[in-house]
Amino acid sequence: MTNVEYDSQNIFAKILRGELPCEKIYEDENAIAIMDIMPRADGHLLVIPKTPSRNLLDIDDQSLCNVMLVVRKLAIAVKTAFNADGVTMQQFSEAAGGQVVFHTHFHVIPRMDGIALRPHTGEMADSELLKQQAAKIKAALVH
To answer: What confidence score (pLDDT) does residue 120 get?
Structure first.
């Protein structure tokens, strides 16, 4: 458990409340999946639980179970959509662990053999490209 309070003004909380735009791929009662605007590979997405928590260290058990089911669903879809050889799933907890946005979230990244992840440069991807990639993933979710 962390003893730091959850900040309801973090960017993902604002996205969940509809205060900021996103390229949404999936939503159910427990979580949403959105395109990462600074992708490290084509198809890089984020799965964000709707229940407020900072990270893996303080999320309640049921919310964690619920969001992991969504992570798996999106991992399968993104692997299919991009004909990937594998999938990397990442979750960073606290600043020392690499966390930048303090709302629990999971990175789901399709991977190809022999192709390294792009560096995290802080540059945003083209919104039209993200829309196209989101459409591919949504189509894979249907099947």
So the answer is: 85
Mean pLDDT score across all residues of the chain: 96
Contact 105, 12 (CB under 8 A): yes
Domain count, the chain: 1
CATH at residue 32: 3.30.428.10
Q: Which of 105, 107, 120, 143 is catalytic?
A: 105
- Write out the residue range of the structural domain in which residue 112 sits: 11-142
pLDDT of residue 31: 98
Please check the confidence at residue 2 and state whether its pLDDT lies above 60.
no
Q: Is 105 a catalytic residue?
A: yes
Q: 94 in a domain, yes or no?
A: yes
Distance set, CA 36 to CA 48, 96, 107 (Å): 11, 21, 8
